[in-house]
Write a structure and sequence with these properties.
alpha/beta; 5-stranded parallel β-sheet; binds ligand CA2; 5 strands; about 160 residues
Length: about 160
């Protein structure tokens, strides 16, 4: 496991994202979660950051990881909460409880899909939101966290 420091970014993926690349390529594209991990590691490395990349199908595990990230004072979290986006007060509350910036990231444009996907509990607590760029959204989120972190360390 990566030593968690101010030069670490957590990339957390929620329910069913382990299935990426196996179904619904018209919505989520052909890439697998392994491909996303590679993209995140390469992007973070270019900024001198390490990545802790995880996926869970369990809401409580995601909450535990958000709390862990807060306790470790890492640089930021890229969070694709999957379906929990639209249901989870617990994930919202966990983000509110930490001072680490969270970039909510979705592969698809949740605002151009079913009306019930237009609402996110997570967005109320997130520092920033990215959606609709496919898996490149993860790289954009990491670039954003690196830029925020550089700005913070100048202060
Ligand atoms: O667009 C996204 O990244 C989502 O967070 C993906 C979630 C969905 O519930 C959100 O509304 C938007 C779904 C994750 C499940 O991903 C699958 C990928 C391939 C096959 C089956 C599920």
């Amino acid at each position: 496991m990566t030593k968690s420091t101010a030069k670490t970014i957590y990339v957390l993926n929620g329910p069913n994202l382990n299935l990426l690349g196996t179904r619904e390529p018209q919505i989520y594209g052909p890439s697998t979660l392994k491909d996303v991990e590679k993209l995140c590691r390469n992007t973070a490395e270019a900024h001198g950051f390490a990545v802790e990349f995880r996926q869970s199908n369990h809401e409580g595990v995601i909450v535990d990881w958000i709390q862990e990230a807060g306790a470790n004072r890492i640089a930021g979290i890229v969070l694709n909460p999957g379906g929990l986006t639209h249901t989870s007060v617990a994930v919202h509350d966990a983000i509110k409880a930490i001072s680490v910036p969270v970039v909510e990231t979705h592969i698809s444009n949740i605002h151009a899909r079913e009306p019930w996907r237009n609402h996110s509990y997570v967005s109320f607590a997130a520092k920033a939101v990215i959606c609709g760029f496919g898996i490149q959204g993860y790289a954009l989120a990491i670039n954003g966290i690196a830029a925020m972190s550089a700005k913070k360390s100048k202060r």
